[in-house]
Design a protein that fits this description.
28% helix; alpha+beta
Length: 116
Amino acid sequence: MSSEPPEQLEQIVRSVVNCLVIGKYADIVHSCSVSRLTADDLFEVVRDYGRTLIEPPPEAYQDLDAIAVRSSIPPTWSVCAPLWSREEGRSDLTLELTIARDGDRWDIELDGLHVL
């Protein structure tokens, strides 16, 4: 397995972040095969953070923290995506996902949303 993450990871992360920014928390949970958070959990984390999430600039996705999980079948990546807020730009809030590619199918797990 290549250690270089595939381009599709960026598209997947963009989609999840977009749903987070517009408050479609249930859509995020439903799009994941496994979610360690509920839609209510996501809402509460964003509310408690106290800032308005916005779309990150395009360059924020160029250097995603995506680490290949060794010896995983199917190929799997652990992804940490920093989020952005209107008030502070790049925020301390981070989205954590596990993304696996099984042929043409992508499997997304929502691992966490928290301040790093």
